Amino acid sequence: MDMHTVVVGPSGTTAEDVIAVARGHARVELSAEALDALAAAREVVDALAAKPEPVYGVSTGFGALATRHIGPDLRGRLQRNIVRSHAAGMGPRVEREVVRALMFLRLKTLASGHTGVRPGTARTMAAVLNAGITPVVHEFGSLGCSGDLAPLSHCALTLMGEGDAEGPDGVIAPAGELLAAHGIEPVELREKEGLALLNGTDGMLGMLIMALADLHRLYTSADITAALTLEALLGTDKVLAPELHAIRPHPGQGASADNMRRVLAGSGLTGHFQADAEPRVQDAYSVRCAPQVAGAGRDTLAYARLVADRELASAVDNPVVLADGRVESNGNFHGAPVAYVLDFLAIVAADLGSIAERRTDRLLDKNRSHGLPPFLADDAGVDSGLMIAQYTQAALVSEMKRLAAPASVDSIPSSAMQEDHVSMGWSAARKLRTAVDNLTRIVAVELYAATRAIELRAGLTPAPASRAVIDALRATGVEGPGPDRFLAPDLAGADAFVRTGALVAAVEPVTGPLA
């Protein structure tokens, strides 16, 4: 078995596995233990299906229609119908990586042995993932309760050979044709299987896991750009001393301060006050309090990772097959735990973007930049420098503040008041993805401004780590100080430098691994 295969078993999976499948297109394989667990749970469902007593999801309707008993002759149709009717999404297509994460996480729950799905149905889902077939899933349709119903239904529809999907070549085609082209037989759903394929928090969880990976990189990147700005403003690094952060022992704060201190090691700019200026004993909050703000966000990430790990260890379905053979209804599909942290992350991401923008603005204002030219322009007045780059950054920050409004405080009753309180976790996840994207751009603008400002400090030697960042960024074609030019390509280059992790990679050979 090669290193690109992820084995799914009844004990759950890891965040790294989710990202490997979603973004790295790793192959998926069901373990022998998973197949045994699937078979054992299916025996329980088959036994219940043979009895005259109604069992929710096996021999009844769904939601507000659960009062109707469904006879054996209609149960296959019942399971097909729930998929077809619930595949009611609308709006733009959801990104390929999100759909792959959603399908993989659903497969993880199936492999737990608590859903009653047949082993063959789980094998088909694995085969679809391995073939690179991605169901067309739409933006709107999940309330984050009873699971991500519409998104998961569109995925289940593909397993049935219906609806549309994207092939490995990126072309949209009928799902049945894509399955046939890869030798995959469509699934004929049996009792409980349609419901089990739909009833999970998989979409919101997949987006949470990927956002956590992206935000970890961005928080490290923001520590670096904050250090570069401090240096460009001739600020003091004394506020980063470990003993100052030890007396307020929030772990994230200490980690951010340590990152900044290591980036600034050996700088000839920090604490360098111009002879004709009044001595500064303190820097502005956006510079001095950078570790406190970024650190609080880091601690929020840590809590969100705890929630994600707990959800990864869960088997979310309704009803579930228990180890003692009982099949019980439950409310574990409610997305509140995941929705809350998705909203919390949007809040801290917005604040990180906000403080980064304030530092950028300080670099551009000649009244607060301690000797730098207005807007870091070559010939201020003839040149506008980075004036409008800050406008763009401010627009992104403003959008992030709107995205920080929590989705999870909303609830619209559905299913004839049977589902009368929902989490809106899918909506929280969707807006967080946009926020993460915007935060990347905001950090990139600060990087672009800070590196230019450092280069404008003629005669002063930046820290070795700062020099490494500047050299690596310039090597990508992003230019340094000079007369005005078409700025968008440089900003796009800085964005790519942050987004791909090149910023962190440029620093760590000098600083060692950063938190």
TrEMBL record:
Entry annotated with the keyword Lyase: yes
Protein origin, superkingdom: Bacteria
Enzyme Commission code: 4.3.1.3
Annotated metabolic or biological route of this protein: Amino-acid degradation; L-histidine degradation into L-glutamate; N-formimidoyl-L-glutamate from L-histidine: step 1/3
Top enzyme category: lyase
Modified residues (2,3-didehydroalanine (Ser)): S146
The protein's name: Histidine ammonia-lyase
Organism, as annotated: Streptomyces corynorhini
Gene name of the encoded protein: hutH
